[in-house]
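Quick illustration for those who missed Monday's session on complexes.
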Amino acid sequence: MPFAKGAKATPTYFRARSGALCNSGEYRLKFKGSCLCGALHYEIYTSKGEIYQCHCSKCRRVTGAPSNANIVVDGNDLTWLKEPAELRQFETSEGWVSSFCSVCGSKAPCKDERYGIYYVPAGGLDSDEGLSVARHIYVGSKAGWNIIGGHAEQRSEN
Ligand SMILES: [Zn+2]
Ligand SMILES: [Zn+2]
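Prediction with zinc ion bound:
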């Protein structure tokens, strides 16, 4: 997470995405988000406030933090509030993709073209009301110094 293009199996956080409800008009939550410099502004709709924290080695390296924290939304549940000219993607040789602001380096919503979904960085949102951690994934790869708290489910992989 965000994602590897070559992955065959449908990840569990994809099945948990909020779009199924959102598409029927049952939105419950709306958030605005931005990067640190303000070049990227976006708005998301979601019926669940579920955050997936990924502890894999790539997410740790790309964030510099113990984990990546994302909300998964359908592609049509995210709107760029201004043209995201500063949005960039980095792709590893294995096809693992991450999005960021080219000015300030903040994590940015990352489109997964395979499923038509976005991984939205929870830390970029203006509010945390209604949000909670639904699951920790790739806990088998977590840093030894990272002590995971709370009651959310923990999975060794996804
Ligand atoms: Zn990850
Ligand atoms: Zn920025």
